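USER:
I wish I could look at a protein chain and see how it folds. I am handing you a single protein, as its sequence and its fold in token form. As I understand it, each token names a local backbone shape. I hope you can help me see how the letters and the tokens relate. The protein I mean follows directly.
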Amino acid sequence: MPPHPTPFPVPANGQKAYLYEERLGETTPATLQGYVGWEEKSEADDNGKNQPVLQGRLSLPDHGLTALITFKRNTDPSLPASHLAEIVFSVPKTFPGGGIDSVQRIAMKQTEQDRGDPIVAVPAKIIDDSFMIAFNDFTDVVARNVALLKDREWIDIPVTYRNGRRALITLDKGTVGKQIFDNVIKEWAALTPAKNGG
């Protein structure tokens, strides 16, 4: 990984975030620093019941790029997924990549430098700059995916810009975020109906 630029002050409720992006004619990716603030929220499902969700607000000031990242249980029986990650980018007209064209599978890692392990999931583009990642709903895979989401400290989100360049968004849970992830995942477990008596 390239060295990080001089950090700027991260807001009190924010954790570190980095954007590594390919640049023409450069062998190592450029590194931009930003921050992400994690919150526990409540969101009404299709039946009007409130569901606990994990929400991260990402800001990358050098590009003026922001994103709302939401992890939640899937309550839509027609969708074969246990959980969903929704990523909605707000892209300024001046963004050098032109926009976010695609998002790949999310990976969870213990340290910032780790390669990480991917969440078993299927990413899909909803509209421009807006994406949904559906977590696989096989019982064994669900347990592994949720364990990765809970136990790992860092989140990798690989993206491709509209101009074809690739980039990687890396987010830190931090102490505050870890507590929020733990709380919400515990609430999800309490709401998830037991399968096969397990």
The chain is about 15% helix and 45% strand. Confidence is low (pLDDT under 50) at residues 194-198. The helical segments are 139-151, 174-191. The two ends are 42 Å apart (CA to CA).
